[in-house]
């Protein structure tokens, strides 16, 4: 392997970063995809279609592992993962899964912090593999394309891959914060009691 070739480092880092972040959420996977797309847009070192394909595959394998460990009966792994998620979020996802499972898989992948509760709920409900796998693949492809688009936009604004990477990281953080604020606002709105009308 030629370590002076940016592609020799970029493609494995992209796939590995997305895979790791999809199993253990310590890597900002959206920023990784956006940065790779920004580099592909501003330089000739990476191929944008290959960036999207590798991001999709890394996310897909990570989601299958996250679903598969508790689904195949590892109670200890399920307790470890679920212990890091709010109980109300898990219960809400679990209750909705019987009605529209494939939609939840797609939405869970696209909404920040929604993926793990949805996959754990699917595993807890023994959601069928034959339904999970195609839904997850489609969701990962949409997710990769969306974050690559942020990278394309930042790369189109700035010719420098460093500046474009910084911009896409800021954009990903803003999207995450905004999605969190909207989710909190919707939850607070749902919890506001309706005053009784006294006749």
SSE topology sketch:
Layout: H1 6-23, H2 29-42, H3 48-71, H4 75-82, H5 87-110, H6 115-124, H7 129-157, H8 161-191
Helix pairs in contact: 1-2, 1-3, 2-3, 2-7, 2-8, 3-6, 3-7, 5-6, 5-7, 7-8
Account of the 3D structure:
With 199 residues, the chain is an all-alpha fold. The chain has one domain. It has 8 helices and no strands. The longest helix is centred in the C-terminal third of the chain and has 31 residues. The protein is globular.
Mean pLDDT: 76
The computed structural class is mainly alpha
Unreliable spans:
191-199
Silhouette: globular
Helix content: over 70%
Please write the string of helix (H) and strand (E) elements: HHHHHHHH
Gyration radius, to the nearest Å?
A: 19 Å
Comma- or semicolon-separated keywords:
0% strand, 199 residues, 8 helices, disordered C terminus, mainly alpha, 79% helix
In short:
79% of the residues lie in helices and 0% in strands.
